[in-house]
């Protein structure tokens, strides 16, 4: 599950973030230890710690000395907001620019998106 083209510590952080967003890790729930991540992914514990500490620095996780790491209250909302902003920057803006180049009006673009969703739900084209 580790992608060799990207830093492992970032992938660990993203995996935890994904689990929080999906609800697999609830707010105030304990996160697996860095040793558990290291063992599972067969990586150096310091690398796992770097990913976890990144989330501590971002306020997504907090440490309880001698007990472990926990998901902070409000972490899911903060992550969803950040991901929505990234989604807008990475997907919506380029899509809107390309639509303008092609003369696709906003209402027509919205209808195309609705059609895409219907096709996806009914097993059609992705």
Low-confidence stretches: none
**β-strand number:** 3
- The overall pLDDT average reads 91
> Helices and strands: which structural class?
mainly alpha
What does this structure look like?
With 126 residues, the chain is mainly α. Helix content is 63%, strand content 8%. The chain is built from 5 helices and 3 strands; from the N terminus they run H-E-H-H-E-E-H-H. It has a 3-stranded antiparallel β-sheet, covered by helices on one side. The longest helix is centred in the last third of the chain and has 27 residues. 15% of the residues are buried.
Keywords:
63% helix; mainly alpha; 3 strands; 126 residues; 5 helices
List the helices and strands and how they pair.
Elements: H1 8-22, E1 30-31, H2 34-41, H3 45-57, E2 61-64, E3 68-71, H4 75-101, H5 106-121
In brief:
With 126 residues, the protein is mostly helical. The protein is built from five helices and three strands; from the N terminus they run αβααββαα.
């Amino acid at each position: 599950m580790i992608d060799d083209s990207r830093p492992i510590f970032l992938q660990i952080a993203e995996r935890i973030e994904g689990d929080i967003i999906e609800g697999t890790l609830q707010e105030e729930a304990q996160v697996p230890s860095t040793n558990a991540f290291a063992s599972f992914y067969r990586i150096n514990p310091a690398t796992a710690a770097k990913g976890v500490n990144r989330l501590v620095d971002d306020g997504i996780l907090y440490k309880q000395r001698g007990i472990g790491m926990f998901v902070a209250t409000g972490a899911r909302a903060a992550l969803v907001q950040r991901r929505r902003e990234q989604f807008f920057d990475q997907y919506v803006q380029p899509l809107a620019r390309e639509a303008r180049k092609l003369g696709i009006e906003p209402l027509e673009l919205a209808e195309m998106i609705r059609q895409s969703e219907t096709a996806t739900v009914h097993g059609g084209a992705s």
